[in-house]
């Protein structure tokens, strides 16, 4: 990773590198309205990216929320070795695009009066009653700590101002987390959310809660809060309270055995800088401080449900979730959140602090662009968005009434092809 008005219509753009069901997508039968012509330059951009092996494949899906216009085009293949294409039902690793879903679940419990955004985290998870902050770190890896001056809160977890971090974020906490067996959630992970919370609570925070923005395992801890408050495992809570009501039938942490072959193939650049499949070994792979695996959802312990990065989903399912958010918490006859809660989630809540990677504001689960100078890369002011470490991205632009998702199942922490998706879309639309 480099890295309350309802919208009358929206644009959904999705890029993916896999089609588990096989067979070439029939774009003509799935496209209607003028968007296909308007976004032709976007297709050219990703067609060239695939040809240059910048990505293994791509899918572009564009839709107005009212269904009046739709565009679908695919490039490359989901599995190069077998020539398999992909479609809207491909199971893809959405990675950190899991975070807005978990954050939505938290806000549902806030609305029910079961969670107080500003209560100390220790109220819900006793192990967090006395957090500490990292002091000096010695060359031998030993370190000092001091008691935190203020408690962690659910709000600080939602805004990534908690003081937690990720291993892939590097020093000074990467080695400390590694020695304690803390997982980033995109590799094989022994144990449960409860055990991860216990491990992290015994370690120091990078900084005082609320003082800085540090992208982190905060949303995994939120997953544990959901479990503690609701009395339900996180996967069951999301299934019962979000996926089933919205009709998201293809979103889960671990697929049924008969659907393993539908999970997209993950690629990376090999030694010769050409595309290769990420090995399926049942073990974790390392890339600097990052630890990941392509078969987390299909092999290994399958006991850890990462609220920050563990879900599989499809283009169709994630589109439903985004439509719900774009419509201020409602979808068809279902209402998950009030417009007021969605507004809190999708407007900047961190003041002058800046979110890692994007130099942007951050709400409660979503990054928010509040800087006109960043409009070309992030979308106009008011656009909210996030990304996934396996090359995926979405955004919602309330002013222009647009929604976009871009994803390619590709492991390359330095590649910026997917990051260019919003700019390509806005540039294409501006030519009309």
Major sheet: size, sense and barrel closure?
Answer: 5 strands, antiparallel
Write down the overall geometry: globular
Quantity of strands, as a count: 18
Low-confidence stretches: 2-29
Instruction: Give the termini distance in whole angstroms.
Output: 32 Å
Our Rg estimate from Cα atoms comes to 21 Å
Average of per-residue pLDDT values = 90
Please identify the structural class as seen in this structure: alpha+beta
Strand content is 15-25%
Number of helices: 13
Spatial ordering of strands, largest sheet: 13-14-15-16-17
Pfam family, one: Beta-lactamase
Enzyme class: hydrolase
Organism: Hyalangium rubrum
Domain Beta-lactamase-related: 44-409
Distinctive features:
13 helices; single chain; 432 residues; five-stranded antiparallel beta sheet; alpha+beta
Question: What's the SSE blueprint?
Answer:
Elements: H1 27-30, H2 35-38, H3 40-51, E1 57-63, E2 70-76, E3 92-93, H4 99-111, E4 132-137, E5 143-147, H5 154-158, H6 173-180, H7 193-201, H8 218-230, H9 234-246, E6 267-269, E7 275-277, E8 285-287, E9 290-292, E10 312-313, H10 315-326, E11 330-331, E12 334-335, H11 339-345, E13 361-362, E14 367-368, H12 375-378, E15 384-388, E16 392-397, E17 402-407, E18 410-411, H13 421-430
Parallel strand pairs: 6-18
Antiparallel strand pairs: 1-2, 3-10, 4-5, 6-7, 8-9, 11-12, 13-14, 14-15, 15-16, 16-17
Helix pairs in contact: 3-13, 4-8, 7-8
């Amino acid at each position: 990773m480099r890295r309350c008005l309802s919208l009358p219509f929206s644009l959904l753009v999705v890029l993916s590198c896999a089609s588990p069901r096989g067979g070439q997508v029939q774009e003509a039968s799935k496209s209607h309205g003028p968007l296909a012509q308007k976004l032709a330059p976007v297709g050219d951009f990703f067609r060239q990216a695939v040809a240059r092996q910048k990505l293994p494949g791509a899918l572009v899906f564009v839709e107005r929320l009212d269904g009046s216009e739709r565009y679908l085009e695919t490039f490359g293949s989901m599995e190069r070795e077998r020539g398999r294409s992909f479609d809207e039902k491909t199971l893809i690793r959405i990675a950190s695009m899991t975070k807005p879903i978990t954050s939505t679940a938290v806000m549902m419990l806030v609305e029910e009066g079961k969670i107080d955004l500003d209560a100390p985290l220790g109220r819900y998870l006793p192990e967090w009653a006395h957090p500490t902050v990292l002091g000096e770190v010695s060359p031998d890896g030993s370190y000092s700590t001091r008691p935190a001056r203020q408690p962690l809160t659910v709000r600080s977890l939602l805004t990534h101002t908690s003081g937690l971090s990720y291993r892939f974020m590097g020093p000074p906490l990467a080695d400390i987390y590694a020695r304690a067996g803390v997982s980033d959630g995109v590799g094989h992970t022994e144990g449960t959310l409860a055990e991860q919370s216990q491990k992290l609570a015994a370690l120091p925070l990078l900084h005082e809660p609320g003082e800085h923005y540090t992208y982190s395992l905060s949303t995994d801890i939120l997953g544990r809060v959901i479990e503690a408050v609701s009395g339900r495992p996180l996967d069951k809570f999301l299934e019962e309270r979000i996926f089933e009501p919205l009709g998201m039938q293809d979103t889960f942490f671990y697929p049924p055995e008969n659907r393993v072959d539908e999970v997209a193939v993950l690629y990376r650049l090999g030694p010769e800088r050409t595309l290769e499949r990420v090995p399926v070994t049942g073990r974790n792979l390392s890339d600097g401080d990052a630890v990941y695996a392509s078969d987390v959802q299909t092999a290994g312990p399958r006991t850890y449900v990462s609220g920050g990065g563990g879900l599989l989903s499809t283009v169709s399912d994630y589109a439903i979730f985004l439509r719900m958010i774009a419509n201020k918490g409602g979808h068809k006859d279902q209402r998950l959140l009030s417009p007021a809660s969605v507004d809190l989630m999708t407007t900047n809540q961190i003041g002058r602090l800046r979110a890692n990677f994007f130099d942007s504001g951050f709400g409660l689960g979503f990054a928010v662009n509040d800087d006109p100078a960043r409009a070309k890369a992030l979308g106009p002011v008011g656009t909210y968005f996030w990304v996934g470490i396996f090359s995926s991205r979405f955004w919602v632009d309330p002013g222009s009434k647009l929604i976009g998702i871009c994803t390619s199942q590709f492991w390359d922490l330095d590649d910026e092809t997917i990051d260019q998706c919003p700019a390509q879309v806005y540039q294409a639309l501006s030519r009309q």
